[in-house]
Amino acid sequence: MRSDFDVVIVGAGAAGLAAADRLAGSGLEAVVVEARGRIGGRAETVQLASAGDPAATFPVDRGCGWLHSADINPLVPLIEAAGFVLDRTPAAWQRPAEERHFPVAEQRRFAEAVDAFEARVDAAAATGVDRPAAELLEPGNRWNPLLDAISSYHNGAEFERVSLLDYAAYQDTEVNYRVRDGYGAALARLAASANVILHCPVTAIDHGGRTVVIETARGRLSARAVIVAVPTPHIAEARIRITPALPAKVEAAGHLPLGLANKAFIGLLAPEAFAVGARFLGDIHRTETASYHVRPFGRPYIEAYVGGRNARALEAAGEGALIAFALDELRSLLGADVVRDFRPLAETGWARDPHALGGYSHALPMHAGARGVLAEPIDGRLFWAGEATHPVAFSTAHGAWLSGRRAAEEALAALLS
Ligand SMILES: Cc1cc2nc3c(=O)[nH]c(=O)nc-3n(C[C@H](O)[C@H](O)[C@H](O)COP(=O)(O)OP(=O)(O)OC[C@H]3O[C@@H](n4cnc5c(N)ncnc54)[C@H](O)[C@@H]3O)c2cc1C
């Protein structure tokens, strides 16, 4: 393969693909090198066979599924222009949960507890002093376990591990859309013409010489600039060896660990028994509970979502543990008779995925500044992208996309000046 480029982009997730898209037509020769045999990273749509009719399949997103902050999300117009249909109905978690599992009066009280917590977060963040977001939970409040469950879905971690300032900085316009044929499929379509080398993990980057040298499993590349767009554990754990060493980057990446979120997909033999788009929580009194979304797009399955410590423990327990957990919760909610018609379809394991190593980033308490440190270019030739580098849209696919564009613009400015 060709070995000399203007820009080598490491990682073909949303960030790396956005960087390639921005550099296309700029006159600079760019290539994306990707460890996996596919593009998209944590954006991945797969087809599942229906439990009732194995010949019928439907798409599900193993990673990102929602276009968050959709009214300002730059991917919305791009995805629509690429011919994908968006669903604009309110997100599952923005609609009331099923009354029989969570009485409406109780849902109202919980919503008040959420509002009060968020108000305390905003007031505390205004002081500019960082601390664990858990310190804003009211001691003894009966809704704390459920608030932490929501944190485990939102941050991939419980509030005690989450920086208050980072949490408060996240930008959420509360408009959320979905892609009918899959967010991962849409991103892959947007990047269809990108120059990507698959099955090509980068093992080392040497920026000590005149050009940057990139060691890969398929040989050595050189470039005038590199855009690093891999998940933070790869930097924090020096899975890519960078010389001369960059201790500030390693430290910043370590302060931005990936929380964990996983999904289980459970097929329904008799889907008509359930309302399309219903949602409920497994146990409103526990942090270790899943959120269930029933028949998304009218398809015959339930999507279970777990996060934080619960997701980690279930992954550690081995393949199948997440589905078994979800089926147990569903059994106690709906009854064994109903669950007899449920069939395990698939589950994710993002922490054991060697190229992801987790779900999405959160800043550890006292380290909200790490995102800025990680994003800072080095010597006008090492640039940094990935969801963890975005100041306000971290942990999302559109934040990753925006970070890739930003890194590409920095590279363009440096190389064309
Ligand atoms: C369960 C789950 C649900 C989610 N839900 C949503 C959602 O609803 N909405 C939303 O906006 N976001 C969501 N996200 C987050 C979103 O998927 C990510 O923030 C985003 O996709 C990250 O993009 P990225 O480019 O930063 O990283 P990645 O997508 O991880 O891309 C990095 C790429 O680098 C590659 N790589 C790693 N190491 C090397 C190496 N050594 N050499 C070469 N390549 C390497 C990886 O294989 C990968 O392809 C979810 C994530 C998960 C896991």
Can you give a write-up of this model?
- This protein has 417 residues and is α/β, with parallel strands linked by helices.
- It has 2 domains: 4-43 and 181-257 and 361-416, FAD/NAD(P)-binding domain, CATH 3.50.50.60; 92-175 and 261-347, Polyamine Oxidase, Chain A, domain 2 (Alpha-Beta Complex), CATH 3.90.660.
- It contains 13 helices and 20 strands.
- Helix 1 (14-23) packs parallel to helix 13 (397-416).
- It is globular.
- The mean pLDDT is 97.
- The chain binds flavin-adenine dinucleotide.
- Residues 10-16, 33-36, 41-43, 63-66, 68, 201-202, 229-231, 234, 240, 261-263, 348, 350, 355-356, 359-360, 386-387, 395-398, 400 line the site of flavin-adenine dinucleotide.
